[in-house]
UniProtKB/TrEMBL annotation, chains A, B:
Enzyme Commission number(s) of this protein: 2.3.1.4
Pfam families: Acetyltransf_1
UniProt subcellular location: Endomembrane system; Endoplasmic reticulum membrane
Family indicated by similarity: Belongs to the acetyltransferase family. GNA1 subfamily.
Name this polypeptide is given: Glucosamine 6-phosphate N-acetyltransferase
GO BP: UDP-N-acetylglucosamine biosynthetic process
Principal cellular location given in the protein's record: membrane
Reactions catalysed according to its record: D-glucosamine 6-phosphate + acetyl-CoA = N-acetyl-D-glucosamine 6-phosphate + CoA + H(+)
One GO cellular component term noted in the UniProt record for this chain: endoplasmic reticulum membrane
PROSITE patterns attached to this UniProt entry: GNAT (PS51186)
Amino acid sequence: MSTTRADPASLDLMFPQELISLEVSALLPSDLQIRPLASTDYKRGHLDVLSVLSIVNDLGEVAWVNQFHAMRATPRAYFSIVILDKASDKIVGVGTVFIERKFLRGLGSVGHIEDIAVDKSQQGKKLGLRIIQALTHISENSGCYKTILNCSDANIPFYEKCGYVKKENEMAKYAPERVHNAPKL
Amino acid sequence: MSTTRADPASLDLMFPQELISLEVSALLPSDLQIRPLASTDYKRGHLDVLSVLSIVNDLGEVAWVNQFHAMRATPRAYFSIVILDKASDKIVGVGTVFIERKFLRGLGSVGHIEDIAVDKSQQGKKLGLRIIQALTHISENSGCYKTILNCSDANIPFYEKCGYVKKENEMAKYAPERVHNAPKL
């Protein structure tokens, strides 16, 4: 095992490491590391972790890397983070906040937290809490006046512990040809 | 009154008029028009309509136009629409859908509907429904596998009539220095 492999300085990151809260980093178990998503994270199991959350429908590494670059090319929009197990160089936690510009609130911005997932082998280590804290830090430090996310009834108490309060209801409409299913390719 | 003033072809639009559903356009009362937001819509009362919804905190036209251009410069992201009263050349309805890229669902996309507002003088004309239909059309035609929005308990029946179903709960955290208030400038 190599410590160089996991060194953020050697990676092509989605955004600067400096945006990750040092306080949150320090609270992680010492065998884990939190950093921005890197262009080579497909190989470290990024989609494997996301698959605990929803349908992944893996299109392969080239398509994944293209999406990474499309997201990074969007100015001040996507901030995906990962928690990495240093020994195995595998991703064990993921999450994203993306920033929406508005005309309201003095041309304000809102951070939307999406797609939080933690590998089942890592439960009980508060990694979900650390991901939410890190993403909220990015959102607030990017000038967002609020940060929002959607969750099930069962997860409300967890997000309340993270400092969130229930506000409204999420309504959804699935596109007709793809109802509750992965896109046909 | 001039019909030229309201002709989308003469305006600098956020996105092409062709993305607006012809079916939805045809369902509007004949004195109204639906089109993409234009760079000159600050003068047509865009923020006045938004002010029925939330704190606007108007920073002036130059700042508004800069935000318009920043949003348009973001590829395949922001789609703001307006309903215009042709006679007065004033905006009477607004709404936005922005598109989020994901790693899930075959590198899928989700449309987020935000900031729907209709002038109080125009109630009872189903303009809210038309705005939702037009934004959902844009979202689904942009390849989003689902479209989501957040609403109060009182508005759930309205969005159900628009084809939406309640899914999860919106949780929110306001940034500490700006809690439930407009940003200090």
